[in-house]
Design goal:
The complex is a heterodimer of chains A (111) and B (115). By secondary structure, chain A is mainly β. Chain A has no helices and twelve strands. Helices cover 0% and strands 51% of the residues of chain A. The radius of gyration of chain A is 13 Å and the shape is globular. In chain B, strand 7 and strand 8 form a beta hairpin. Classes of the chains: A mainly beta (111), B mainly beta (115).
């Protein structure tokens, strides 16, 4: 079946550290892949997306590359800030429009 | 509307009562999704609609849960005989369909507390 697996949190880093949040998926066909972010007290919002293999999504200094060979879409940022503290969700969207989310990874950035 | 609108934003209900949660998607969006987020948990898929049809109802936790969508727009999620374990945030989202790369937009959620 289709599923999304992301690293369990919480992840705690110091400001300016390098961030990686791993995400792998299983799916038939070629889904689109997304990262959503939920800041404290706010709703879910799209962070970035990639619609085909080797595409790189980027936004706010975050990047993720659609890797078909490893079925991965890891989220990276070179230098995190306190304001990046949030819960991050990896998701895939199938051709039939069903969207499946991972369990989320809580990120804490210490000043 | 400008965004996905959900109501009520907060609902406290007694165990055993029925509740209805409403979602008004972004105008023109044909795909509509319901998810549940429990405290400290991820997003649990409940059901989605393409137009008025629900191709996949597999995520509904029990037969106490049902959802409908009329006119290809507003959707209602109904929980009958609520239980304490139903307490969660119920999130609605919508998007254009037919292209899998389309972004989905979330509402602010309906916080349900069953006491």
């Amino acid at each position: 079946g289709n599923s999304v697996t992301q690293m369990e949190g919480p992840v705690t880093l110091s400001e300016e550290a390098f961030l990686t949040i791993n995400c792998t998926y299983t799916a038939t066909g070629y889904p689109s892949l997304f990262w959503y972010v939920q800041y404290p007290g706010e709703g879910l919002q799209l962070l970035l997306k990639a619609t085909k293999a080797d595409d790189k999504g980027s936004n706010k200094g975050f990047e993720a590359t659609y890797r078909k060979e490893t079925t991965s879409f890891h989220l990276e940022k070179g230098s995190v800030q306190v304001s990046d503290s949030a819960v991050y969700f990896c998701a895939l969207r199938r051709r039939d429009d069903k969207i499946i989310f991972g369990k989320g990874t809580r990120l804490h950035i210490l000043p | 509307g400008a965004g996905v609108s959900q109501s009520p934003s907060n609902k406290v209900t007694e165990k055993g009562k029925d509740v209805e949660l409403r979602c008004d998607p972004i105008s023109g969006h044909t795909a509509l999704y319901w998810y549940r987020q429990s405290l400290g948990q991820g997003l649990e898929f409940l059901i989605y609609f393409q137009g008025n049809s629900a191709p996949d109802k597999s995520g509904l936790p029990s037969d106490r849960f049902s959802a409908e969508r009329t006119g290809g727009s507003v959707s209602t999620l109904t929980i009958q005989r609520t239980q304490q374990e139903d307490s969660a945030v119920y999130l609605c989202a919508s998007s254009w369909d037919s292209l899998s790369g389309n972004t989905i937009y979330f509402g602010e959620g309906s916080w349900l507390t069953v006491v």
